[in-house]
Amino acid sequence: MAVKSIQYSDQNNNHYSITQTSLIYSPVTPEESSSGVYSGGDPAEVQLTKDEFNTILSLSEKIMKASEGNEMKREMLTSVLVISEEGKSRRAILKRSEARSALEELLQKVKQ
Taxonomically, which superkingdom (predicted)? Predict the structure, then answer.
């Protein structure tokens, strides 16, 4: 089954939408933030190489597998990962972990 997209919302609710060809970053604005002052920075849209997408997908799949069966409500300091494929989506709520940090670092690096 071909993966169509990956959606990731970090602990601050900044959103990444990833397809095989692009990454779109939609940051939280101060008006949207719970503090009223936090800003996720500037929006960004970048083209992805096949290797960049495959690296993001591989790490996302690893995180998804490790999170299977950990159903919970979203709490503060958690993030959300959704992998959508033809006809279905898998969703995980992620607590802090080395893998989550690695994914966030990778997404930050790719969006610059």
Answer: Bacteria
